[in-house]
Amino acid sequence: MRITVIGCCGSFAGPDGAASSYLLEHEDASGRTWRILLDLGSGAFGPLQRVLDPADLDAVIISHLHPDHYLDVTGLEVFWAYHERDDLGTLPIHAPAELPDRIAAVLGRNGIIPDGVSCAPFEHHVLADAERFTIGPLSFEPRLVIHPVEAYGFRITDGTSTLVYSGDSDECPALDELAADADLFLCEAGYIEGRDDHFTGVHLTGKRAGECAQRAGVKQLALTHVPAWTDPQIPLAEAREQYTGPITLVRPMDILHVHP
């Protein structure tokens, strides 16, 4: 599995990058490359187009309905609904149940069919805790994590290697279970100790991300979702005090590889 970091800025798009979005690519036994987008937050649809033609996407997964994780799905819908090609079909989107209503509200319409077209561009699939699903050769296990809205982390495997994506979460047993023995743990670290402790049930600090990775025995930790107002070296240093394995601080357009 290969992950291209489309955007990794926490809570809102920053001056040097978009909000959360990660392109997951994996080649199956026949040589076909599957392309799945994990989140498409504010500002991310633009840089996504520098990496691939969005028409080549096989599916999109939205971890939760905060704008920094889903808002640019509205741009993707415009692309998919009005594209000059007529062979795109419908694009599967796995997300919390309210996503279609949120898209319609942002675009000022009723229902899931865009103005002027005859069919919906997206095929909506509702996420549920511990209900696994597959996309091509990849298996996905969503788990409800701790956040102010319905939010999911994901355990993704091709049968030999495992990627875990925290989405947005504070520390919780479900996140520990997801991360157990993961080859790569792509984990948010939106807060820092001392400054943000009075916000509970929202985000991990670098310290708590490192503690989770250490408890879970992950092989590699990649920190993400650091907001523009935070020096990223602070959550990185916090995590290093807790986790003894290799740590990466992701940046836009980084490429991460998941190996067993």
Protein traits:
single chain, 260 residues, Metallo-beta-lactamase, Chain A, seven-stranded mixed sheet, 14 strands, 26% strand
Question: What does this protein structure show overall?
Answer:
The chain has 260 residues and is of the alpha/beta class. The protein has one domain (2-257): Ribonuclease Z/Hydroxyacylglutathione hydrolase-like (Metallo-beta-lactamase, Chain A), CATH 3.60.15.10. 22% of the residues lie in helices and 26% in strands. The protein has seven helices and 14 strands. It has helices spanning 45-51, 67-70, 73-82, 99-107, 173-179, 206-216, 233-242, and strands at 2-7, 21-27, 33-38, 59-61, 91-95, 122-126, 133-135, 138-144, 152-157, 162-165, 184-188, 221-224, 247-249, 255-257. Strands 6-5-4-3-2-1-14 form a seven-stranded mixed beta sheet, covered by helices on one side. A seven-stranded mixed beta sheet has the order 7-8-9-10-11-12-13, with helices on one face. It starts with a strand and ends with a strand.
